[in-house]
Design a protein that fits this description.
The chain is of the alpha+beta class. The protein has helices at 49-56, 91-99, 103-108, 159-162, 174-183, 199-208, 226-237, 258-266, and strands at 7-8, 14-16, 29-31, 37-40, 46-48, 85-86, 112-114, 117-124, 127-135, 142-146, 167-171, 188-191, 212-215, 243-245, 269-270. The chain folds into three domains: 7-56, Zinc finger, CHC2-typedomain (DNA Primase, Chain A, Alpha-Beta Complex), CATH 3.90.580.10; 85-150, no CATH class; 153-270, Dna Topoisomerase Vi A Subunit, Chain: A, domain 2 (3-Layer(aba) Sandwich). It is built from eight helices and 15 strands.
Length: 271
Amino acid sequence: MYDLRLKRKSSGWVEGRCPFCKKDSKAVLQFNPEGEYFHCFRCGTKGSLLEFEAMTGIVVNFNFKDYVKQPFVFDEYDFDSEEGVPVYENEKAFTYLKQRRALSYAILHNWKYVYDKIKIPISMNNICVGMMDNNLAENRTLKYVFRANSKPSSLFYNYDSAKFKSIIVLVEGVYDAISAQYALPLTGVMGLFGKFVSDDKALMLNRLNPEEVVILLDSPNKDKDIEKSIKAISAKLKPTLNISKATLENGDPNEVSVEEVQKAFYEREIL
């Protein structure tokens, strides 16, 4: 549990402890009087109230005059459990991740293996907001679990690594993001947890204000309806952002070679 120790100042602004830098008890986090946006004056993290709630799982009620306790809100999933072993210590996880071209990334980001599952943390602004269970026993199914009030509609995978890049590439899934980021290291690749962009995600991308957003989804040969998704994403992000699409001939970014991802990127079409 993390107490923000929020308090409303005479100016109307709300101040408290920052859940992102957590350095000490000083009130370095501030919300504007209406609670529309926040800014930490130490670590520099800032954004809308919606982004704050998505990244931390904290729901803030601004209908107060003085001190109010606002703890983290968790669902029943134990996100902070130390259970499991590093994926490189389990032969099944090691082999699977090597096949998915995600082994180095998994080791670097401390993925764990627990009871035939690979536990993949989902973080934004260095806060774990969810977890993906990759079940190796049940036909390698994927299950997403998020902290209370943290929903896929307001989250990206690989957001922290990608958010300050001038070109942002949008892909569908976690493994797609890892493979595309490896193939396109000078860009920032974000996983959508699907093939649609919500209003919340569109707002976040507009706040980042990249020079270009490249849509790199599954190939039309793999998903015959993918063009509808691309048009919907483009319509959501235009006219404020420059949008292009990169088209793979087959498969998805995690299934094809590095060269095929790079070829699709360099031959991308402006929308």
